[in-house]
Write a structure and sequence with these properties.
Layout lengths: L9 H8 L5 H27 L4 H33 L16 H25 L6 H21 L5 H5 L2 H25 L3 H7 L6 H12 L1 H25 L4 H7 L9 H8 L3 H25 L2
Length: about 300
């Protein structure tokens, strides 16, 4: 099982404890994070490509990923809709002068993680010999990534107090967590894993570079691939539904994006929901970015 699951959280909190003021250094960290994400995903694909009986597992993985994605989507949207009925949030009227978001560009960017995974998979399956240290390299890279992300969160010019006291963002994040864990509980007999492992799978909240490696390290490359694909699908689905539902239910649009609401899907939220949605989305995404590794670490440590 996953030994030292909680230890992997230390780099995130260590990074968040450090304050930096050098803008050039923060820019370098930004590009390093981007490179590490694709490197980690390529390593995840490499592990999949070198997995014994890969072709026999693909159909099963597709079914497991579909079940997880559908269950989480339904549970999240129902939970967020109930939250909207309880605490309605009205977005600003979209100002056309701000310009429209380049959806094709965003969708293509959302496909880049899949391409990194596919490149690693093909290299592992057809080209490279078996590499026994892949898991250790991926884990070390992930710890470095978490440290750098902690630095980014601390030095993003955000007030932690304001984020934690943004009641709308807090309720959206907690609703997404609760509905995701409920969906996980319902999936236990479907996925055939211990309850704590299924709840770990349900706790990615869109952070695919984290969930793919952490779950893969704990449960094997096949489950790592399922976790990765599930969280990539969350990001892609969020891009599609945000313009459709943010006018009638901002909580659903912001919440389903999960951890990505503070970065990747934020431009879509801003252009369709107005400025009033931005602090809520950042608060929700920020909280989920911290809760995801904590919950995965806790659940996996129970095995």
């Amino acid at each position: 099982m996953f030994t030292g699951a909680l230890l992997i959280l230390a780099p995130l909190f260590l990074g968040f404890a450090l304050s930096l003021e050098n803008r050039r250094l923060m820019t370098a960290i930004h590009y390093t994070v981007q490179g590490l994400v694709y490197f980690i995903l390529a390593l995840l694909g490499l592990g999949l490509g070198q997995m014994e009986g890969l072709t026999d597992h693909l159909g099963t993985m597709a079914g497991q990923m579909t079940a997880l994605t559908v269950a989480l989507f339904v549970a999240n949207m129902v939970g967020l809709w109930l939250l909207h009925r309880w605490q309605p949030m009205t977005p600003e009227q979209w100002d056309e002068s701000t310009g429209s978001t380049g959806y094709m560009r965003l969708f293509m960017a959302a496909l880049k993680p899949l391409l990194a995974l596919l490149a690693g998979l093909l290299a592992g399956y057809f080209l490279l010999p078996r590499m026994p240290l892949v898991d250790q390299i991926a884990t070390g890279s992930l710890m470095l990534l978490l440290f750098l992300i902690g630095l980014q969160l601390r030095n993003a010019g955000l007030s932690l107090r304001k984020l934690l006291t943004n009641t709308q963002g807090l309720w959206i994040a907690l609703t997404l967590v609760a509905s995701s864990l409920l969906a996980g509980m319902l999936l236990i007999p479907v996925l055939g894993l211990p309850w704590h492992d299924v709840l770990a799978l349900a706790s990615g909240f869109g952070w695919y570079s984290l969930s793919g490696i952490v779950i893969g390290d704990a449960l094997g490359p096949a489950w790592g691939g399922v976790a990765f694909l599930n969280d990539v699908m969350r990001e892609i689905i969020a891009l599609a539904i945000i313009p459709l539902v943010i006018g009638s239910s901002p909580a659903m649009a912001i919440g389903y994006g999960g951890a990505t609401s503070m970065d990747f899907t934020l431009p879509v939220i801003r252009s369709n929901g107005g400025l009033s949605c931005v602090p809520v989305a950042i608060a929700s995404g920020f909280l989920l970015s911290f809760l995801s590794p904590v919950l995965m670490g806790v659940f996996l440590s129970l095995g």
